Amino acid sequence: MVTQKIPMDNDLKGIAQGLTVRGKGILASDESTGTIGKRLEKSGLENTEEVRRAYRENFYTADIGSSISGAILFKETLYQHSSDDLPFVTCLSDRGVLPGIKVDQGLVPLPGSNSETSTRGLETLESECRQYRRQGARFTKWRAALKVADGLPSEAAIQRNAEELAEYAAIAQACDLMPIVEPEILIDGDYSLQRSAEVSQRVLQACVAQLWRRPVDLEATLLKPMMVMPGADASKRASKEEVSIATLDTMRRSVPPAIPGIMFLSGGLSEEESTQYLNAINVLAKEQNNNPWALSFSFGRALQASVLKLWTEEESGRVPAGAAKEMAQALAAANAAAAKGEFQGPHPSITSAAGTLRETFRGWRTDVAS
Question: How many domains does the chain have?
Fold first, then answer.
């Protein structure tokens, strides 16, 4: 645990500014071996360290530097090399992409709750952060997950996760790593757009309050929330315009201007939906001209579904070599345009909504790896 006062490190502020450069976003490629393994196996591939390494090389050696400012890696990947024996950290840095690292150890049940969770990993976080910094990581990410249902999320779950996110952020900054704080509102369920806005506001305000109390340097911290939208099973869908209005209204009520960037997660949306929603948010933000933050992306599945499909076909010889890497570049460019409110289409993805990488539940279950 960190007891000393957190240094207000201008270098960490510089990392935050570098990650929020206009027209760039963050590639979230930090899936655990279990999570990425299920996706690989579903595509007919083995879940081995070499297959995982080869798949991720499509992203880290692609020409993504004009669209991607940072990439979040899993701990295994941080130590891996490209096929020509360059460390992935070097591959990214050579392209102007800052390497980051996921530092939480997954979700665990919150005692006494109705299937709610907290996040594990604080006990060993400081020593691990110092090791990751030596390996070349410059920023970190920690995910909490909040379930929306009748009476959920509970106040106890909101406060517990907010406290853990703030403690993580303080430890990361003390170890010379810039933290990304991710309080994910799970998309599962049939809740409405209004309910999503109410829950998001409660969760974000609790997180910000705990960041202040720790204290964490907000100018050296980024936020990674879900866009405000109905649950995936809601009978009434929302237009991209309705999502953009609800999202910006909620962010204004909850996020102080000291935080330089809001990097939205895709949360199970299709590749095209993620881009269109992000674009709508930035179009509206430009029209209103009163938003103090960068409004960009930290997408995982929404930057990977088509890439994985093409790479699987590459491995079987059905498409030319390099097709997956070209798709990684195209998806990054589409979302970079959306981060400026300038996406025109057509979208480069080749997967339908039914073919996304969305898992039906992203909380905690006894039958899945964290």
Answer: 1
Q: Which residues of the chain have pLDDT under 50?
A: 1-9, 354, 361, 364-370
Supply the pLDDT for residue 366. Answer: 37
168, 302, 306 from 353: Cα distances, Å: 34, 11, 11
Domain assignment of residue 4, yes or no: no
Collect contacts of 349-355 with beta carbons under 8 A, ≥24 apart: 349/270, 349/271, 349/272, 349/305, 349/306, 350/306, 350/309, 350/310, 351/270, 351/271, 351/305, 351/306, 351/309, 352/270, 353/270, 353/273, 355/305, 355/309
The tokens of 155 are what?
Answer: 């106040």
The pLDDT of residue 360 is 53
Q: Is residue 2 domain-resident?
A: no
Q: Which amino acids are annotated catalytic?
A: 182, 224
Q: Look up the CATH number of the domain holding residue 77.
A: 3.20.20.70
In this prediction, residue 57 carries a pLDDT of 98
Buried b (16+ CB within 10 A) or exposed e, 270-289: bbbbbbbbbbbbbbbbeeee
pLDDT at 270: 94
* Range of the structural domain that residue 279 is part of: 10-355
